[in-house]
Each structure stands twice: as C-alpha cells, then as structure tokens.
User: Fold these one by one.
Assistant:
Number 1:
Amino acid sequence: MTVRSPFDTLLMVVTQAKDGHIPPTKENENFLRGAQVTDAQGVVEFDSIFPGWYDPRLTHIHLKVSRDGETFLTTQLYFPDELVTDIYTNHPDYKDYGVCPYNLTNDPVLKDLNDETGVILKTERTDELLTASVRFGIA
C-alpha cells in the first residue's frame, strides 16, 4: 500500500490533479468516494462516517455538482468549528486521533478565499446521528 504524507497530497493536488481528482492510494479502491444521481426534485442523500482531518487541512468533504457531463461546481464542504472540536475531543472513535489544529479561520485553503466561498454545512445532531445539509442551485 502506498501512503502519502499530507504535503505530498497537497503538492499532487496543485501540480498533477486533473479537476481536483487524486487517485486512491490502493489500486482499484475508491475509499469514501462515490457518485449519486438526484431524485426528480434534485435531492440526494447519502450516509457516511464523519471525515478525518489531515495536516494541513481542516475537516472537509469534497463535492462536485454535474449535469449531463458538465461540471457546474467543484467545492469543499466544511463543518462548524464547535462540532468538529466536540467530535475529536469526545467521540470514542475520534478522540485518540486528536483535535484538528485547523479551523474555519486558519485553514490554509480557506484563508485565501477572500470572497468567503467556503460552504459551511448546516448540522443537526442527536445522540445517535449527525445530519449535515447544504443546498445548491444550477440553472
């Protein structure tokens, strides 16, 4: 198995990634990657785990919105800082990894977005479930 250091991944994104795509480190695997088609109302839902963080980035999810083979949006989705800190501090599956030192104000990618185009997810949480939502429109 090939393991990439965080800065190797960042360098690959900048120099080699086509349309922001990084190939998986294991051949023929797409760990936590996927595509879905919306329903007739344009809604899509999926179940996932809470993503981990890597140096030098805060916790985020990559998203691409396409229609008929044309990409209209490629972005990253972010969680509120308080939620991320709580999960990495208190959740048994995450707390051993440590709290992410990056947040919505010091992440190296987000701090360069002068127009505040980072998309922060709206979240709702119960003891058993975290729901995150966002709405996009394309014409």
Number 2:
Amino acid sequence: MKTILKNISIFILIVFFGCRAFGQSVDLSQTEDSTQSISELELGKINPYWLTVTYDKTTHLIFPSKIRYVDLGSDYLIAGKAEDAENVLRIKASVRDFEPETNFSVITDDGHFYSFDAFYSPFPYSLNFDIRKMEESGSKNEIDDVLFEEMGTHSPSLADLLMKTLYNRDKRILRHIGSKSYGIRFLLKGIYTHNGKFYFHTEISNQSNVAFQVDYIEFKIADKKLAKRTVVQQQKLIPLRIYKPLGEIRSGAKEQNVFVLDQFTLSDEKVLLIEIYEKSGNRHQVLQVENSDLVHARFIKDMHLKID
C-alpha cells in the first residue's frame, strides 16, 4: 500500500513540474515573439525631432509645403497655422514647467509626416526653425509615404516631383491649343498622364502694359455646341494639386504652372474648357481641349521621369 501511495505521489510531482516546464516554454515562446515584433517595429520607427518650447514666447516652424494636419499630444501645447502663411506653424506651451515631455505630429501637403518631442524650457535654444534646411543638412526624420484620399494610391511626393520636372523642362509639345486677346496669351503646353492622373502644363504671358492679376482658374466639361454661349450643362473639375500659387503676371512677364486632375475622357459632344480669370478685370482667357488631345497625352513611364 505504501508503495502504491509513493508511486502516486511521484506521478503527481512529475505531472506538476512537467506542466510548469511547459508553461515556461510557452512564456519563452511568447517572449521571443514579442522581441521579434519589437525588432520589426524598430525598422519602421520615425525618430522625432526634439524641440523646446516655453510659455512666454512663440516658436515658429517653417515647413517646405503647406500644413495639412496637426495633432497635439496633450493640452500642454497650443498651436495653429500662421495667418496668410500655410506652411508656418506657431506653437507654444499652454502651462509653465510642464513635465514630462509631450509630442505633436504634422502632415504637409507633399505627403510628408513629421514627429516632434516637445520639452519645456524657460530659455529655449531657438524660437524659429526652417525644416527644409534641417532636411538638407541630413537630419531627415520624416517619411514621405502619406497617401491622401483624393490622390488614391498616387504618392503626393511623387506628384510634386513630376510637376517640378515638367515645370523645369518647360517644353511645349502642343502647338494648337491657345488663346490670345488684350495682350494676354494663354497656352496649354502639354498634357501628360501617370498612374491615373492628368498633368496639364500651362503658360500665361502678358504682352500688355497692365499687370494681369490672376483671380482663379477653372477646369470644366461643357457641351461642344454650347461651350461659347452658355454656362448651362457644365461640369466643374477640381484640380487635385497645383504646382505654384496663382498670382500676378507683370507687364512683359510670363508664368507657367502644372495642374493635376483625375484621369477622364470625353464624348464627341463634349469639350474640356480651361478658363483663367482676371481679378477686377475682364481679360479672361479660355482654352478648349478635345477628347483626342486627352487620349494622346504623353505617358510618363517610370520613376526616372522618362516621358514618351
């Protein structure tokens, strides 16, 4: 009997320690998985910029592109875009001597995401920062893969690069689409396509003695027979991106620009009208684009910006 009880006790101990050992092996496995996950996260982390802010003074950050989104990590900070300067962020502490540090994030119109850790200091090292110069110096902590809803899978940074390339090349591949009156000449220099988007390259020149102040530009689809006589039956198209702000064209000067729109085609009864309006004036110009012009748009082949 004693032998039986002894064997049962040994069996119970074996099972007990076996279960503990099994449990430990599971825990170790989970630890390895966690370590692997942390390692993978390290590969994709964005190192934040460090910034000191204070209560009595405002810090200004100048970004390379328009600010689209700002998120503050806590109520310790207050921030807002500077008036009439969409690429300048004002930020300061809302309370004195806050601790520990907090953070904030910024997304700009070129698809860049920036992360900042903010620390309180009564005497900040500097109050004004040019992010472009920080990037050029090699201190690049942002990513440029943010996708916007209106751009779909089209990277905003790539779109900006394409617009910049077309602008700098400044070639006229279309010779038959233009408008000229009152000393103002408006040209469509080229239509390009890439990844489901159209790139319209335009130029306006002022051969008069009076400056031309651009009010706005419109893209709209209209019935071909009614295009010149009425605003009825017109569908407005909103550019997704514009390379340069619209401004003043002085006497004897010319300005070019690039506009990005979603790709589309027209029926034989429709035309695309591109109209540019003068502020406080009537020298507006109209370009008329046929479907044949759209379907023969130059194709941008790859990331090297080879254009056929």
Number 3:
Amino acid sequence: MRSKHPISERSACRLVGMSRTVLHYEGAAQPLNEQLKGRLVELAGERRRFGYRRLHVLVRREGWRINHKRTWRLYREAQLHVQRRRKRGQQLIERQPLVRPATPDATWSMDFIFDTTSNGRPLKILSMIDEYTRECIALEVGRKFNSDDLVQLLIELFGIRGVPKFLRCDNGAEFISNRLRDFLQRIDVGASYVEPGSPWQNGYIESFHSRFRDECLGCEEFRTVAEAIAVITHWRQGYNHRRPHSSLGGLTPAEFSSQCAASDRPTASLQQHTADSVPQPLLS
C-alpha cells in the first residue's frame, strides 16, 4: 500500500532497509510441492491417526527426497493436524521399567481388548505380540473366547512360529485357567503374570492396544463379526508390513524381524514340545 506522502518507492525502501527486489518478489509456482501435499492428504486419509513424522517416513519410502522440515510445512498448510485426545486424571504411582527380551520369540504378550458391533453386541478380541520385534502375532475376533479356544490358538501359532520361552499376561480368567496352565507346563513354556492393578507390567501389549484402538477400533463401526474380522485382519497386515515403528528405527515390525539373525530365533518345533503332552483331541 502506497503512502500519501510524496516519496518515491526507491526512497521508501531505503528508509526501511528493504530491497526493491524483495518488495516485488512473487513466489514461483512449485508443482512438486502441490503433488507432495496431495500425497500427504491421501496418506493422512488412509492413516487418520498418523502425525507428520510417520507420514514423512511413508513418503520417503515412496521415493520423495525431502527433509522433515519440508514435510512439516506442507503438513501445516494442508491442515492435517491430528486431534489430541484428552487424558483422564492419573494417579502418581512408581513404575518399574519393563525389560525388553534379547531375541525374537523369547516373550509373547497377550491380552483381551473389547469393542461392540453397531447393534450393541460385544466383541472380544485376543491380541498377541512379540515383545522384541513388536510384530502382531494374532488378533482373534469373536463374541466369546474361552481357555479351550486359547489353547487351540496357541497350538496353531506354535506350529507356525515355534515355541516362545515365556507368555506374559494378566490374571484374566482365561489366562489363569488350569487348562492353560497344564498345557504350558507340559511344553515347558513359562507364564509371566503381572500383578493385579499393574497394567504397566504388561506395557508392550498396552502400548499396542492404544495404537490399535486409536487407528482401527476408534475409526471403524462394525455391523457383523465377519466385517470386524476382515477390517481388523487388514489393519494387522498394515501394522506388521507397512506401519513404521519409532522404537525400531523407522522400520516396520516385519522388516525388523527379517533383519534379526536366524540363529536368534528359537528352533524348537511344536512336535518336539507337544508330541507327548497335548491331549489328542486338540491335535485331530
């Protein structure tokens, strides 16, 4: 805006210490930035709870040679901020550090998480992860899930991945049942139970549950169990193979697992551990 005082543009710029080139500069259009911004919007639509750091990892994987500052600037221009969810008041409790296992398949964590279908009927979901690689080993969805179902699932998983040294869980009825205890004792797998009212002792599965609810359960409405199984299975595949994990140096759990030396994995097979110990009807 020009002043009413009789002063030239050159003199005015000299008075305020501004270059006339800067005054008349107009930014050139940058189609590459618009393409990148559009891609960030697409990825944010697919991963609605991802912030700019994780989106930056995804676009870098696609071949965009940019730094995080450029991603952040375009992220803000596109107004892709993730809404922060309010936290409930928490008690100040002294927590003990959770020791991470030294090898893959050394300790598996498992727990239940609950949701509902659109008609209000409950969904019971058993989640299981490898604490070392952060892989989601299983997400079993159903209306109910008892100790017999749990033992049958473990037999199937042990046959695929081998037998871990420990299973970490809380004191839920399915986990402390005699059926499960006898099964684990026969195949020489330890059960590490957390203290009642101490969820931080099972911190890996609790952290996984927060991501699972934030990125999947909190964003979807299931009409049937079959629909829930399909959506959750798809999310689990994305979590293991496409979702970068900050604690793994930006790798996905599947990529991190593939980098682990084969010698670090337990080599005992299901047959070695269960040939004489598992009740025959479960193997038929």
